[in-house]
Predict the structure of Protein nucleotidyltransferase YdiU.
Amino acid sequence: MTLAETPNPTTSSNPLLSLKYESALESLGNDYYDEVAAEEFPQHILRWRNNAILPRLGLEATTVKDEDFIHAFGKFQSRKPFLALRYHGYQFGEYNPHLGDGRGFLYGQVRGIDGELYDFGTKGSGRTPYSRGGDGMLTLKGGVREVLAAEALHRLGVKTSRCLSMIETGLSLWRGDEPSPTRSSVMIRMSKSHIRFGTFERLHYLKRPDLTQKLLDHVIDEYYPNLKNEDDKYALFYAELVKRVAELVAQWMAAGFCHAVLNTDNMSITGESFDYGPYAFIPSYDLYFTAAYFDYYRRYCYGQQPSICHLNLELLQEPLKAIIDLADLHHGLGKFAEYYHLEYRNLMLKKLGFEDSNLAEGDDLLDLTVTFLKDSQINYHQFFADMAQTFSIKWRDEPGLVMNGCEIVPSVGSSNIFDNWCLLYHKILNNFDPEQMQTISQTLAKYNPQANLLRPVIESIWQPIVESDNWQPFYDLVKGFQ
Ligand SMILES: Nc1ncnc2c1ncn2[C@@H]1O[C@H](COP(=O)(O)OP(=O)(O)OP(=O)(O)O)[C@@H](O)[C@H]1O
Ligand SMILES: [Mg+2]
């Protein structure tokens, strides 16, 4: 998996460089970006290549060599321009007009075999005009954490960016939140778009409705193509964005994921999840669980995520109202709660084994499950993983056999709420034919991976990397999500 320095292959023989790059964003003109150069690194060691997403680009993993990744995504050869995108954002409630790609750039855009346009964005590729006091770099641990989050979230059904590659770059970095000096990396993120809510906020700040209109037309043409020929495409776009964001935050909540930094510069205009910094998965169901140590007022705690996303959508109305009627914006946002609750209910029922959200007892089961998880404070991920692993047709026989064999049960004891949960689950199973138990078992396995990404798990794969440069536990963990 790792590779040191290698000779320089030609562009034509490198499948990553001979992809058909499109210049969709570049062709909007240089009001939206600055052309920048990549850092020249002292070392390039490929630590991660995401073979699972290569087919989406029409590539077979066997035809792409490790050195192809290094030359394209570590040495940054044979391609340009590299565009540091300009954006602002509300950070912890304060407007910040000094943002922009400060340690990354848009490397290129490629259309997948699904017809969708994908961004290749870097993280940790050096300083830009937006670096302010920063070094433009990404720590190796930061790269490892982003690879892991994206793969785990993808496995859990969250619409997310993925990492295409992560290369160790041989620098020593100083960070206040990691033992320093610490190792460096550069990552390529493949996502639907790096246009953020904050990209529009900047245009409003600059009083440039003409640029807002041009960008919005581009966003609709490229990322909401089904709307582009509608008379009221702008109102429909906002309504659709509200739906996508409401569903995204429901996906995080069901996955037990706390993003940690839901500033408007970390919200994608496509409604996709990205930027995995100080995130954490909840150890147990706790609405106040806060992932970032610097989030003193719990602004972005687990349970606040739906209302913060609603607020961010409301803040976006400010730039959009130059183009879209206020009444349409209000109407669009008014649907947020409905979309959120529907998606959350559907996803939680799937985690409980039921694909069909019309399940008559669905609301009762959801309420009781959440109450149980909250009151017992058992491991959120282990509960569902145990269900998936031990599910048996015998659970139909009597309520006392439900969850029988689950490791987690002894820690629950015989609380009333758990007994009630078992009674209800037993009753629901008996509303199905015995032949349908196989489907329930498959649904449980599909939505509840055995692996999880709780903090001690991440530390357990990081330690071997630090102590003996042993990357196998990292590869094994990622494999558990793919
Ligand atoms: N080490 C750094 N050097 C320079 N700029 C940085 C550094 N870390 C963060 N920034 C900048 O600070 C701002 C907020 O950072 P944040 O961590 O949200 O984004 P990011 O992780 O760098 O990038 P992305 O949002 O694409 O994942 C951005 O403008 C970012 O470019
Ligand atoms: Mg960011």
Notes: Residues 265-266, 275 surround magnesium ion (ligand 2) (CB under 6 Å). Residues 233-255 form the longest helix (23 residues). The longest strand covers residues 162-173. Residues 353-447 form one domain.
